[in-house]
UniProtKB/TrEMBL annotation:
Domain Copper acquisition factor BIM1-like, first and last residues per copy: 25-158
Membrane topology: Lipid-anchor; GPI-anchor
Biased composition (Low complexity): 174-209
Pfam families documented for this protein: BIM1-like_dom
Cellular location(s): Cell membrane
PANTHER family for the chain: COPPER ACQUISITION FACTOR BIM1-LIKE DOMAIN-CONTAINING PROTEIN, HYPHAL ANASTAMOSIS-7 PROTEIN
Keywords associated with the record: Cell membrane, Glycoprotein, GPI-anchor, Lipoprotein, Membrane, Signal
Domain of life: Eukaryota
GO cellular component terms given for this protein: plasma membrane; side of membrane
InterPro entries for the chain: BIM1-like (IPR046936), BIM1-like_dom (IPR046530)
Region span, Disordered: 173-209
Protein name: Copper acquisition factor BIM1-like domain-containing protein
Amino acid sequence: MPVLVSTTGWRAKRFHHPLNGALPSQPPPTIGFDDSLEATPPCGSFTVDFSKDNVTNFAVGGDAIAVTSIHPQATWLFRATLDQTASGNWTALLPDVMQTGLGDLCETGLTLPSSWAGQKGVIGVVQDAPDGILYQCAAVNFISGTHMPPSVCKNVTGLAATYTADPSLSNLPSTATAPSSGSTVSATTSSPASASASGKSAAISNIRQ
């Protein structure tokens, strides 16, 4: 499963997948992070390069992304594309997610079309924060099956995450196949996130913005 990490703005802590054998303290990195250029789309000023990037696996039948926010309130967009340049054809994984509360948030049960399995692509995470729209990306191999979220995928105590419609983010994906907005999930304990009835939970941990 991917987990993103960066610094101020929004930190995509890292993409972590149990099959990578990486420890939570040494997760596979995003394709790059520069705090001063994080507002540069689509990947915070970095160019996807599958020959050099640390490529991780993302299961199309269900996987997770963990992020950490350093803002009291911010809204997330989770998206993916088969365009290996990350220049377009984005598909939203969920409606926009508004996080209220500092700290870890983990989004589980993220799915993509089964036809994506066996192809390379990019996971993009965008945050609408008080300091602007911030971007990070991870290069991935889309694979079949599902992945259980690892122990690093948690919601900080007291955090609330709500599906919403953010005008600043709604025009970014070129394709959106997400459930309707209005669903709400609150994280009241710092325990691994569990899937909601629809197969998706508004849990997000490990991206910092």
